[in-house]
Amino acid sequence: MSINILFLTITFKKREISLEEAVQQEMVERLYEEHKDRQFSLYRIM
């Protein structure tokens, strides 16, 4: 009879984003909100 034990270590590291990535992400979120608002306004008209 044999017992095999596997030890596994998982580490999480917070990813630091650059200024350019932060600006890009903010622009994407703003455009997403604008499109969502536009879709909602068109849906209300119908």
Give the helix level as a range of percent. Answer: 55-70%
- Judged by helices, strands and strand pairing, the structural class is mainly alpha
Percent strand:
under 5%
Taking the sheet with the most strands, its summary is: none
Low-confidence stretches: none
The total of helices stands at 1
Shape field: elongated
Count all strands and give the number: 0
From the N-terminal CA to the C-terminal CA, the straight-line distance is: 72 Å
Mean pLDDT over the residues: 84
Tell me the Rg in angstroms.
23 Å
Give the SSE order as H and E letters: H
Structural notes for this entry:
This protein is mostly helical. It has a domain at 16-46. The protein is 59% helix and 0% strand. It has one helix at 19-45. The N and C termini lie far apart (72 Å). The mean pLDDT is 84.
Topology at a glance:
Blueprint: H1 19-45
List its salient traits:
1 helix, 46 residues, 59% helix, mainly alpha, elongated
Care to give the gist of this entry?
This protein is mainly α and 46 residues long. The protein contains 1 helix and no strands.
